[in-house]
Automatic annotation (TrEMBL), chain A:
<dbReference type="GO" id="GO:0051539">
    <property type="term" value="F:4 iron, 4 sulfur cluster binding"/>
</dbReference>
<comment type="subunit">
    <text>Composed of 13 different subunits. Subunits NuoCD, E, F, and G constitute the peripheral sector of the complex.</text>
</comment>
<feature type="domain" description="4Fe-4S ferredoxin-type">
    <location>
        <begin position="148"/>
        <end position="179"/>
    </location>
</feature>
<dbReference type="InterPro" id="IPR019574">
    <property type="entry name" value="NADH_UbQ_OxRdtase_Gsu_4Fe4S-bd"/>
</dbReference>
<keyword id="KW-0001">2Fe-2S</keyword>
<dbReference type="GO" id="GO:0042773">
    <property type="term" value="P:ATP synthesis coupled electron transport"/>
</dbReference>
<dbReference type="InterPro" id="IPR050157">
    <property type="entry name" value="PSI_iron-sulfur_center"/>
</dbReference>
<feature type="domain" description="4Fe-4S ferredoxin-type">
    <location>
        <begin position="192"/>
        <end position="221"/>
    </location>
</feature>
<dbReference type="InterPro" id="IPR054351">
    <property type="entry name" value="NADH_UbQ_OxRdtase_ferredoxin"/>
</dbReference>
Automatic annotation (TrEMBL), chain B:
<feature type="domain" description="NADH-ubiquinone oxidoreductase 51kDa subunit iron-sulphur binding">
    <location>
        <begin position="447"/>
        <end position="492"/>
    </location>
</feature>
<dbReference type="Pfam" id="PF10589">
    <property type="entry name" value="NADH_4Fe-4S"/>
</dbReference>
<dbReference type="InterPro" id="IPR037225">
    <property type="entry name" value="Nuo51_FMN-bd_sf"/>
</dbReference>
<dbReference type="InterPro" id="IPR036249">
    <property type="entry name" value="Thioredoxin-like_sf"/>
</dbReference>
<dbReference type="InterPro" id="IPR001949">
    <property type="entry name" value="NADH-UbQ_OxRdtase_51kDa_CS"/>
</dbReference>
<dbReference type="InterPro" id="IPR019575">
    <property type="entry name" value="Nuop51_4Fe4S-bd"/>
</dbReference>
<dbReference type="GO" id="GO:0010181">
    <property type="term" value="F:FMN binding"/>
</dbReference>
<dbReference type="InterPro" id="IPR037207">
    <property type="entry name" value="Nuop51_4Fe4S-bd_sf"/>
</dbReference>
<dbReference type="Pfam" id="PF01512">
    <property type="entry name" value="Complex1_51K"/>
</dbReference>
Length: 243, 535
């Protein structure tokens, strides 16, 4: 295909985000446009290169005039849209969501190997979450150290399913899945067997790199040491699609 | 096949059956659980020995007053329920006496009067054949009008005409949200696609609701007929009924009905000898409330984890396997055949301006008559609670009526004269929902009511999104704390804030509506919450 050929039938729309007039291709999502223009919309489950999950709800933005909230990652742009991404109401809601996450499992950052390199922690700091008003659920989750290279700590998992998607969609192994529902949800490898006994895992490490928290880490890292690298993902994903 | 052929079929079946009187035994789930099958057997036996050959004993669907079951009706052939002799709490030993009464006076000690408001105030459209016909007999359905609407549509009407009729009826979806059915059909019809699907949502997960189950157990053919008409109207060739596996009787009767309809040519490659092709398969759900949500339901049919996805795209645009899909509730489909037979204008005369037709409700809670009713939209709550349901027993006072299940709310006494329609209920902070109605008397605590529904939402949340998964857990914990008398002002404030966040931020209807029972009890019974707070 010649590089100059215009995509047929894809039009450009104009919209207003945080009082800025912007244009976008009509098949883009609000989050993509925001990222492109460096408008910071928080997100935990979205990752460029992976399929849409739309579960963390942190990217919700206000559709001005309708007083309605929409998820930026799963909403297409439309002509004439007026969007507010950082109203006081949204800030309050997002803080509440992060508090709910902290109360759901155990996120004691000071002893976490991802301390300082954790997306949840960064988000909490950015949103100004300095205490949690909710009671802690106090469920004890186990730690799976059976894999020779990696470790899974359910206590730090926020169920964003990035690991599930990267392993299925990029690595093609589908070693991870979700078991149970509601508060009983858990990430499992294969049919809920220890990771080390997994017959599908290729030990590629992609899930560890995309995990936003200290839930999936390398063995042998101690507090604050686990740095993650996700830049491979969009590149791999683009190459896949080009094929 | 034409309408004349269908009439001939019906006439032939009538000629084969020579009985003049019928003894109808309810064999729907509720009456079966109170022992109606042995009653049926005993009556059949008694009929064989005592009968005069002009009487037939048969199993039928729900007659409505389930709390008085097993119910047995003695009637002239084809006579309506209201003009039959009804017996309540029948046991097998009563059989000879009931049979003897065919020639003599009725068995007074078993009488259940049908001139009471419970029977007289109902208008039966969806339930027109429920309690009248044997749900396992296709000929009986045909004798009572079954499949005539389907034949009429595919031989005499264009798809556009069918949709016009449904639109003119003003029918709104009975699955909860009340979306205009005609509009939904025309949207799917307009989608350009060679492959389209029709889905019947028979998941019915609301606690206390059993309307759809009763329809499927009592008259499965009307649901198949409604689906086939829909398929013709929108251009689909394949349908699914998603029914929960906890409804084994409904599943069995659906299987029987589908097989019979196929054999008779009402489903299959050439429906009624026309080029129209349509077939239906059953899909059994394991029984998760969230699988009633349309996108989760479709994922489940596709063999995936039953979890919602964001809409748009709506199923009408991209549904099952990415194809345009029409998804309607059981009761919605059950309304279709009468609308075609009698016309959309006829249907639109019943009910109110914004809510046409009738609604089936499952009455439960602190009332004398619990069971299934079908009433015209616009009837007042007072008429339902004080007259039809016979009022509150044991001299207790009415406190509230809960409608709409976990997505709905409570209505206190001062609004009892409100007409039952989609918009009025919404103004009161609740919803019509799928038709569960739970009456609460003065002995109940409204905080407990809210806690009950929150516990349901908490354990039924699919866990995909943060606000619903963990928000409902926290709300339940706060409600429990308050109910225990250990709550503080801050707890109540936190509860209210969570209501706002969970409602605004959740991905699907489950989370978005989970706060409703709390919000509505707070709206009318805030004093009960405050009274429980620790000073
Ligand atoms: C959590 C949840 C549960 C639902 N459960 C049901 C159900 O059991 N039966 C049903 O017909 N609709 C249910 N619905 C509504 C359906 O998603 C859908 O709107 C309906 O089946 C459309 O049919 P209708 O237009 O005929 O009402 C549910 C919705 C939600 C959000
Ligand atoms: S290491 Fe690779 S293959 Fe193994 S679970 Fe993680 S992503 Fe999948
Ligand atoms: S293990 Fe990590 S990537 Fe996987 S769901 Fe949990 S937080 Fe997300
Ligand atoms: S609102 Fe609840 S049920 Fe719906 S997607 Fe979110 S977690 Fe699942
Ligand atoms: S990033 Fe949009 S919901 Fe998670
Ligand atoms: S189940 Fe028999 S009357 Fe309802």
């Amino acid at each position: 295909m010649p590089l100059t050929a215009a995509q047929p039938n894809v039009r450009v729309v104009t919209l207003k985000i945080d009082n800025r007039d912007l244009s976008a291709r009509e098949d883009e999502t609000l989050l993509e446009v925001c990222r492109e223009h460096q408008i910071p919309v928080p997100s935990l489950c979205y990752l460029e290169g992976l399929s849409l999950w739309a579960g963390c709800r942190l990217c919700m933005v206000e559709l001005v005039g309708q007083n309605r909230l929409v998820a930026a990652c799963s909403t297409r742009v439309a002509e004439g849209m007026v969007i507010q991404t950082d109203s006081p109401r949204l800030q309050r809601y997002r803080r509440t969501l992060v508090e709910l996450l902290f109360a759901e499992r155990n996120h004691v950052c000071s002893v976490c190997v991802s301390n300082g390199h954790c997306e949840l922690q960064t988000l909490a700091q950015r949103l100004g979450v300095d205490h949690v008003r909710f009671s802690y659920r106090q469920v004890h989750y186990h730690l799976d150290s059976s894999h020779e290279l990696f470790r899974l700590d359910h206590n730090r998992c926020i169920l964003c399913t990035r690991c599930v998607r990267v392993c299925d969609e990029i690595e093609g192994a589908h070693a991870w899945d979700v078991m149970g529902r509601g508060g009983q949800c858990q990430i499992i490898s294969d049919l809920a067997t220890p990771w080390g006994e997994s017959e599908t895992c290729t030990s590629c490490g992609k899930c560890v790199q995309v995990c936003p928290t200290g839930a999936l880490v390398k063995q042998g890292t101690s507090a604050g040491e686990m740095v993650k690298d996700q830049h491979f993902l969009p590149i791999l994903a683009r190459r896949r699609h080009a094929r | 096949m034409h309408l004349d052929d269908l009439a001939e079929l019906a006439a032939r079946h009538r000629a084969e059956e020579t009985h003049e009187q019928e003894i109808r035994v309810c064999v729907a789930a509720s009456c079966q659980s109170s022992g109606s099958l042995p009653v049926l057997e005993a009556l059949k036996e008694a009929c064989a020995t005592q009968g005069n050959g002009r009487c037939k004993v048969k199993g039928v669907g729900c007659m409505g007053l389930c709390s008085a079951g097993p119910l047995v009706a003695v009637a002239e052939r084809d006579a309506e329920l209201n003009s039959s002799l009804l017996y309540r709490n029948v046991t097998p030993v009563d059989a000879p006496e009931i049979l003897a009464s065919l020639q003599g006076p009725p068995v007074e000690r078993l009488r259940c009067p049908t001139d009471q408001p419970f029977f007289q105030q109902q208008v039966r459209i969806v339930l027109e054949r429920s309690g009248l016909i044997d749900p396992e007999s296709l000929p009986e359905a045909i004798v009572h009008g079954g499949y005539s609407a389907l034949i009429q549509t595919i031989t005499e009407m264009t798809p556009a005409e069918v949709i016009r009729e449904v639109t003119a009826s003003g029918l709104r979806g009975r699955g909860g949200a009340g979306y205009p059915t005609g509009l939904k059909w025309s949207t799917v019809a307009k989608m350009p696609s060679a492959q389209k699907y029709v889905i019947c949502n028979a998941d019915e997960g609301d606690p206390g609701a059993f309307m759809d189950r009763a329809v499927l157990e009592s008259d499965p053919h009307r649901v198949l007929e409604g689906m086939a008409i829909a398929a013709y109207a929108i251009g689909a060739s394949k349908g699914y009924i998603y029914v929960r596996a906890e409804y084994p009787l409904a599943v069995a009767r659906l299987e029987t009905a589908i097989r019979a309809a196929r054999r008779a040519g009402f489903l299959g490659a050439r429906v009624a000898d026309t080029p129209f092709a349509f077939d239906i398969d059953l899909r059994l759900g394991a029984g998760a409330f969230v699988c009633g949500e349309e996108t989760a339901l479709m994922a489940s049919i596709e063999g995936l984890r039953g979890q919602p996805r964001p809409r748009p795209p709506y199923p009408a645009e991209s549904g099952l396997w990415g194809c345009p899909t029409l998804i309607n509730n059981v009761e919605t489909f059950a309304n279709i055949a009468p609308i075609i037979r009698k016309g959309g204008a006829w249907f639109a005369q019943i009910g109110t301006e914004g809510s046409k037709g009738t609604k089936v409700f499952a009455l439960a809670g602190r009332i004398k008559n619990t069971g299934l009713i079908e009433v015209p939209m616009g009837i007042t709550l007072r008429a339902i609670i004080e007259e039809i349901s016979g009022g509150i027993p044991d001299g207790k006072r009415f406190k509230a009526v809960q409608t709409g299940g976990p997505s709905g709310g409570c209505i206190p006494e001062q609004y009892l004269d409100t007409p039952v329609d989609y918009d009025s209920l919404k103004t009161l902070g609740t919803i019509m929902g799928s038709g569960g109605m739970i009456v609460i008397d003065e002995t109940a605590s409204m905080v407990d009511v809210a806690r009950f529904f929150m516990e349901f939402c908490m354990s039924e949340s699919c866990g995909k999104c943060i606000p619903c998964r963990t928000g409902t857990w926290q709300m339940h914990a706060l409600l429990e704390k308050i109910a225990r008398g250990a709550g503080t002002d801050e707890d109540l404030a936190l509860l209210e804030e969570l209501c706002e966040v969970v409602r605004a931020m959740s991905l699907c209807g489950l989370g978005q509506t989970a706060p409703n029972p709390v919000l509505s009890t707070l709206r009318y019974f805030r004093h009960e919450y405050e009274a429980k707070l620790r000073a």
